[in-house]
Amino acid sequence: MQVTELSFSSLSEYLQFCPLKYYFRKVLHLEPEFLSAEMIYGSGFHKAVEAYFRAQLENKTVSADELMVLFCKSFEDPKIRYNGTGKQEMIDEAFILIKLVMDLPIGKVLGVEVPITIPVSKDFQIIGYIDLVTEENGKRMITDWKTCKKRPNPADVAQNMQLSTYNLAYPDADLRIAAVLKQKKPAVEFYPTSRTYDQRKRVVKTFCAVKQAIEANQWYPREGWWCDGCGYQSQCRKEY
Ligand code: SF4
């Protein structure tokens, strides 16, 4: 199999989570047995935030209730599996968090889900979408939304490969993670960071290494906390 392009989400699925899951999902195109409610929460929240900033970009208004309709749509799939937190509890929490996002001091919106393409060689490119590009204090700012239970630690922010990837496309832009904290007291916090030339070079080399591993059919299980939310557990047990 020749890999001609790789997105950060594919890289992350292979490298930061599990190569075998990548194989089941992206190569064999197997349907998962279930979908993790936490994952659905994250993607539903992203859709709601995207709709909010897209409305700003188009000089339209959208209410928190309308954004919640979008969020709740994600929970219609009968294959969702809940683990501890129920659907209504998640919806109530997301409503608070959406309102916090709407109150954030964000500059002028320049782009939402902005596509990026970084040519690496004549037959390989890095692709992706940037959540939000704004103009703040006369500078371009790139924001990546992360729904999480814990505050990101400084080392994770300083080395986050997703922001390094975006920085390849916009080396002069400021970068930050917007952490959407699903805690007892929900909060949304910014974590600014920057990248060096060496970090950009390193991330390109990492993309090339993962491309080679996929082309060489390097599939193996990488177990961790993420296995709880993996819909390929039975298939995984059959293979290993
Ligand atoms: S159960 Fe864990 S190790 Fe197995 S495929 Fe899923 S994520 Fe990978």
From TrEMBL:
Domain of life: Bacteria
Pfam name, any one: PDDEXK_1
Lineage of the species this protein comes from: Bacteria, Raymondiibacteriota
Protein's recorded name: PD-(D/E)XK endonuclease-like domain-containing protein
InterPro entries, A to Z: PDDEXK-like_dom_sf (IPR011604), PDDEXK_AddAB-type (IPR038726), Restrct_endonuc-II-like (IPR011335)
Annotated PD-(D/E)XK endonuclease-like domain residues: 6-237
